[in-house]
Write a structure and sequence with these properties.
- It is a single chain.
- With 291 residues, the protein is of the alpha+beta class.
- The chain contains seven helices and twelve strands.
- The strands form two sheets. Strands 5-3-4-2-1-6 form a six-stranded mixed β-sheet, with helices on one face. Strands 7-8-9-11-10-12 form a six-stranded mixed β-sheet.
- A hairpin with a 5-residue loop joins strand 3 and strand 4.
- Helix 5 packs across helix 6 and helix 5 packs across helix 7.
- The longest helix is centred in the last third of the chain and has 17 residues.
- The protein is globular.
- This is DUF5926 domain-containing protein.
- It holds the Pfam family DUF5926.
């Protein structure tokens, strides 16, 4: 009995449970396509890749940017897409993409998902790691524009046409040189951005070893510019001579990859010497972080 002889009423149990929106620093960990997913999320302008779903033979295409920055949509011809570069998201990109993927599997032609529902309580099996074949790589197809938003021979109109025009005008020339490795012409500068799968500390040591030996470049006209962190991985960046086309850097990038693999392997038996440690400290001083 409470004060005054009144009975306490029953506790209410119909409150909506609070959702813990915990930041996931490496959202694509465990997927073989992790470097490509990060590249498509952060700096590749127009590209598509077919997804390999686990336990389903349905066809879904991953795109960098969708019409009106949608999270997912189904074209009028029935082809389903989810978008990597969405404006709003929770603190787990993999969960948001997983929700968009689950939505599009049951959507109909013409349906559009503006943003995934990131405020409702997370459900089981909604992350990309739950829905994709973990070992599957992405076969990325680059595009010079966003015409892939529409079925073949279709004409854009209304908001889609305006969105298509704006998106096309923002594309920077981009070429893929290898897994997670992209040449981009950004105004008056050209760069190589290379998403690497190794743990940051090991990669920095390997880069330091190459730097101390004068082997960190791609050849004449290239310069190591620094690196940035994106979704748990390190992305080294090189400045390149703008007069050279992307294909002219392909051999240099491949040779650099071979040297980098060798440097990574050598760390198992040979710790960094004093000069290499100084190089590592210098490389660390040229880092940024992208969330």
């Amino acid at each position: 009995m409470g004060k005054g002889g009144r009975k306490k009423g029953p506790k209410t149990t119909d409150r909506k449970p609070k959702v813990r929106d915990v930041f996931v620093g490496q959202p694509f960990e465990g997927l073989a396509a992790e470097p490509e997913l990060i590249a498509l999320r952060e700096f590749v302008p127009s590209a598509t890749a077919k997804l390999t779903l686990s336990g389903s033979d349905k066809k879904v295409t991953l795109g960098t940017v969708l019409p009106m920055a949608a999270a997912a949509f189904v074209r009028s011809d029935g082809e389903a897409f989810i978008g990597m570069q969405v404006q709003t998201r929770s603190s787990d990109i993999s969960r948001d993409l997983g929700r968009a993927l689950k939505w599009v599997l049951d959507a109909k032609p013409g349906d559009v998902l503006a943003v995934p529902d990131t405020l409702s309580e997370p459900g089981e099996g909604e992350r990309l790691q739950d829905l994709l074949v973990a070992e599957a790589e992405l076969e990325v197809e680059l595009h010079q524009d966003f015409a892939w938003w529409l079925p073949e021979d279709a004409d854009a109109s209304g908001e889609v046409a305006l969105s298509l025009e704006r998106a096309n005008s923002a594309i920077m020339p981009t070429e893929r040189l290898g897994t997670g490795s992209y040449w981009v012409l950004a105004g008056e500068k050209a760069h190589l951005r290379w998403v690497r799968p190794e743990p940051e500390n090991l990669l920095l040591q390997a880069l330091a070893r190459l730097s101390a030996a004068g082997e960190i470049g791609l050849g004449e006209g290239s310069r190591y510019a620094g690196s940035f962190r994106a979704h748990g991985l390190l992305v080294p960046v090189w400045d390149l001579d703008t007069e050279a086309h992307a294909r002219e850097w392909a051999d240099g990038a491949a040779q650099l990859g071979t040297r980098l693999d060798g440097a990574l392997k050598s760390l198992d038996t040979e710790p960094l010497n004093a000069a290499e440690r100084r190089s590592r400290d210098g490389l660390i001083g040229r880092q940024l972080t992208l969330r």
